[in-house]
Specification:
Family: Belongs to the group II decarboxylase family.
Strand order of the largest sheet: 1-7-6-5-4-2-3
Number of helices: 14
Strand content: 5-15%
Number of strands: 11
Helix content: 40-55%
CATH class of the largest domain: Alpha Beta
Radius of gyration: 23 Å
Structural class: alpha/beta
Number of domains: 3
Keywords: Decarboxylase, Lyase, Pyridoxal phosphate
Shape: globular
CATH architecture of the largest domain: 3-Layer(aba) Sandwich
InterPro entries: Aromatic_deC, PyrdxlP-dep_de-COase, PyrdxlP-dep_Trfase, PyrdxlP-dep_Trfase_major, PyrdxlP-dep_Trfase_small
Order of helices and strands: HHHHHEHHEHEHEHEEEHHEEHEEH
Cofactor: pyridoxal 5'-phosphate
CATH superfamily of the largest domain: Type I PLP-dependent aspartate aminotransferase-like (Major domain)
Protein name: Glutamate/tyrosine decarboxylase-like PLP-dependent enzyme
Bound molecules: pyridoxal-5'-phosphate
Length: 459
């Protein structure tokens, strides 16, 4: 390598290192919500592409000087919007190595280090979550793609069982497939269905209870009227309430009818890693596939989701390009997900798991739940605030007496800057949601947040 390029690379990495630390060091004091709009940032970074290039260190310094006002303090301790984790130090550092290594991690023979690390991370996770240890684990970008990957596998498998070879014959003329979902499913389920040629008309929507859990009696009644290939989609962790479906009741009902059962557990699956939260996931291991994220509750950097399928032969049947479905001693990453070339996004998951250890993952889950309980108690003690849900996991939903007041409070919290929560609609009314998903959040963060909200509510 020529010396100038070598030097440019080292100085570029040093500049990025410094800029990264400057951002991370600012997290405790900066407003959590960005101060700049998209238009501001388009102006900052836009204009015509210059004719001449510049060296890496200048590029990084230009980025660092312009980016700051448009960055959101997601890795800090007071970002509670959506369901988004922070970044564990070992996972962040490992993620830098992933880029430096530049391993195209679709194939075991090309990139043995990263494929092995992902396979081990997958095994560790199956063990922590008490899922069948022979399952396939595909690393994808997130919960959306994990749901898509699992449901593509499910569609292929239930059609195959009905005697229909999807790879050969396509969807036209295939036996009609019913897709059975809960009323409070995540929006990514409908998107995944849409990508798979499963339309709204193919959905059977099952009523849920006041916390968004599918009603077993309603599932039983609906399945009594359905026949043919069936997929039932359940949920571990409803985004508003954090509630978990009653897997022990629901999965056997679905299996009696020959359905494939998929569990969307983008953040909820991780409850199984804690002795005190595990009961929420009871019976979940009976399902046929599970989707989860490492970039939420495990706190690895974006992007990292996992598509888990009980029988690897079903994954291979859906995704392997040619070859024998039954040979899975030589399972390649591209045999179990839609992707070919990709970054080794499982390496930061390996690093987070190694850094935390079994006990560390359990205590992280416990801490996130304790934080949610503390936040809910604090919010409930503020005059005028109602906590809407029973806090079984990491989600806290609250509101004021009127929808307008609730929405105004949401906007005021973002403008004030101490913390970020996001708005939601629940049972026809406006609410605000705190997701306690970050390893960084301390009692001090919760106290600062409550003080800020108390001040805003008092006006
Ligand atoms: C976040 C979430 C998803 C989507 O995951 P992404 O990582 O954003 O793609 C799906 N289901 C549930 C329950 C979620 O919370």
């Amino acid at each position: 390598m020529d010396e100038r390029v070598d030097d440019d690379r080292a100085r570029g990495l040093d500049a990025a290192h410094e800029a990264a630390l400057r951002f991370l060091d600012s997290l405790d004091d900066r407003p959590v919500w960005p101060r700049a709009t998209l238009d501001d940032m388009l102006t900052a970074f836009g204009g015509p592409l210059p004719d001449d290039g510049c060296d890496a260190v200048d590029v990084i310094e230009e980025i660092a000087s312009r980016a700051d006002p448009g960055l959101v303090a997601i890795p800090g301790g007071r970002f509670y919007g959506f369901v988004i984790g922070g970044t564990h130090p070992a996972a962040l550092a490992a993620d830098w190595l992933v880029s430096a290594w530049d391993q195209n991690s679709g194939s075991a023979s090309l990139t043995p280090t990263t494929v092995a690390m992902e396979r081990v991370a997958g095994q560790w996770m199956l063990d922590l979550l008490d899922l069948p240890d022979t399952s396939s684990v595909g690393f994808v970008t997130g919960g959306q793609m994990a749901n898509f990957t699992c449901l593509a596998t499910a569609r292929n498998a239930v059609l195959a069982r009905a005697g229909w070879d999807l790879a050969e014959r396509g969807l036209r003329g295939s036996p009609p497939l019913r897709f059975v979902v809960g009323a409070d499913r995540h929006g990514s389920i409908d998107r995944a269905a849409r990508f798979l040629g499963i339309g709204r008309a193919d959905l059977t929507v099952i009523e849920s209870d006041d916390h968004g859990r599918m009603r077993p009696d309603a599932l039983r009644a609906a399945l009594a009227d359905l026949s043919g290939p069936l997929i039932v989609c359940l949920q571990a962790g409803e985004v508003h309430t954090g509630a978990f479906d009653d897997f022990t009741s629901l999965i056997p009902i679905a299996h009696e009818h020959g359905a494939w059962v998929h569990v969307d557990g983008a953040f909820g699956l991780w409850a199984a890693a804690s002795a005190s939260l595990r009961s929420l996931t009871a019976g979940m291991d009976l399902a046929d596939s599970w989707a989860t994220d490492a970039h939420k509750t495990l706190n690895v950097p974006y992007d990292c989701g996992m598509a888990i399928v009980r029988d690897p032969a079903d994954s291979i049947a859906a995704f392997r390009t040619g070859g024998d479905y039954l040979i899975y001693t030589s399972l390649d990453p591209w045999d179990v997900t839609p992707e070919l070339s990709r970054r080794a996004r499982g390496v930061p998951a390996w690093a987070a798991l190694r850094s935390l250890g079994r006990n560390g993952v359990a205590s992280l889950m416990d801490r996130l739940h304790d934080n949610a309980v503390a936040m809910a108690e604090g919010l409930a003690s503020i005059e005028g605030i109602d906590v809407v849900n029973e806090v079984v996991y990491t989600q806290v939903m609250f509101r004021l007496a009127s929808d307008d007041a609730t929405r105004d409070l949401g906007a005021a919290i973002l403008a004030e800057g101490t913390a970020a929560v996001t708005g939601a609609e629940w049972r026809g009314r406006s609410a605000l949601r705190c997701s306690m998903s970050s390893w960084v959040t301390t009692q001090h963060d919760i106290d600062r947040t409550l003080d800020a909200i108390r001040g805003l509510v008092a006006g």
